[in-house]
Each structure stands twice: as C-alpha cells, then as structure tokens.
Task: structure prediction
Amino acid sequence: MHRPLFMALLVISAPDLAFGQMSSGPGAMVIDSATVLRIDAPVNWTLDPGTSLVNNGIILLGPEATITEQTGAPISGDGVERIALTFAGPLVGEEPGGLGLALTTSTSPDSLMVVRGHRSYTDTSGTMSIARWFDVRSTMPVTGASLALHYDTTELNGASEADLALGRASAGDSLWTSYPTLSDLNMHVATAPMVDSLGLFTLFPFTLSTGSPAHPEALAWHLGPIPAHENIFVLGPSGATLTHAVLVDAHGRIVRSLGRIISGTAIELAGLAPGAYMLQADRTTVPFLVR
Result:
C-alpha cells in the first residue's frame, strides 16, 4: 500500500497528554518533498515491522518526541528528520529524538540542533559513506565529545562494519576529518570517543588504524578484546615499551595511571563504568570500549 502525504504542513500535537505511543502499521508511507510533518506531542512514534517510510520532506520532532525504527527498515529518502533541544549541563549518552546519535560532552551545548539525513557522501578518494548522516550544531562551542552513531546494515553501501570510522566534513562535503572509532558489530554502533568539534558527521570505510597517523610507530599498538569486560590486553611489538601510560575517559579525564607497560600487559578494568575510553602513552592513542 502506498500512502503519499501531500499536505504542506501536518501537525501532530497533544500538549495536554502524558507521554504516549504512536505507531505505523505495515505498508509503505511516503512523505512528499513539499511536506513538513511536525510532531509536537510527547510521543514515541514506532515504525512497526513491515512499515516502509520514505521521507522526501521534513520531519520536525518536538523536544519530547522520539522515533523508533525497526531493524532492517530504517527511514530512507531525500528528506531529513530534525530536533532542537536545550540543555542546562553536559550530556551523558543523550540521543535526541531517538534518531540514532548518542552524545556525551564535557560541557553544556546549551541549544542543540540535530538533523539526520539518508544520502551518501563521497570523499576526494572516491570512497562512499554509509547512507546516514547527522548535522549537529550548538550555540555554545563543544570541543570535547563522544559520539556514538547507530546505523542499519541496509545503509552500509557494501562497506565492512569493522572498517567504519567517523568522519566530519572539514571543507564542503568532500574533505573529511577521520576519528579513531570503536565498532560494536553486535549493536551496529560506531563510537568516536574523542571528537574535537561538532558539525556534519557520517561513517566511511576508512580502515582507520587506532594508532596516531602522525606517528607511524603508534600504529603497531592495539588493545583487545573490544568491547572489554574485566580486563583488556595491550598488544605491541615484542620488547617495545610504553611509558607514562594513562586511561582517559570520553570527557578527557584521566581515570587510571598505569606507568610503564609492555606488550602482553593486562589492564584491569574493575570500577570503570561502561563507555568509551582511550589508552594514551608517549605518541600513542588507542581507543577501546568497556561494556
């Protein structure tokens, strides 16, 4: 069944209701390019199994509205979903609108605008991104953040999940700055624990090493297993040593001082909350995920 929405503005508003549930049953729904669908009500809009939503227009979410998509059937189309929120303090795993981007920040962004779209980008090397992007803007500068981007496997454009790395547009939409990224293949989430500024983000199959590209000697160091639970092992060249090693959380805070470590060292993770961390030592920065 094909249900085009031809209205220029469709508003779903119920300010006097408690948080509720709205669902779309099986079938195809198309939001026309001339349509703005505004959901002001405090509801969770669930796209039920068998639902196909092609958004060629604009979906505006109120501050208490969220969208839940089914695995294998994400929203697609040439349009965007958008939400604006205001925060009084730092964010901890905040996912505006349920759109699939969770943010953790060390400072308050004040007013935050998140826009999600479904086109792919291509960098100067011809590498194509996944078919999901986010444009994140704030009124106050955010210089240190952790971004966890959820994707659907139907959006991969043939890329390997293990190779995905977060990219931020640095000049137009063809030059991209890449960040060390942790991939949770079971949850289909890519997390970049150290993002220096907000902007336009997507995932590219960069095959990005977890070492620092400015220092080739760092590329030989790895951590495993990821995600880690009780312990994580440092793996590097035989006989090599890292000095002044520390563990840093997504806020840039040192949570554990390790001193001198060698390849094969087991780092105990007891007491660390689940989330993204980085091992920093000498000229080496290696991210990892604790679950």
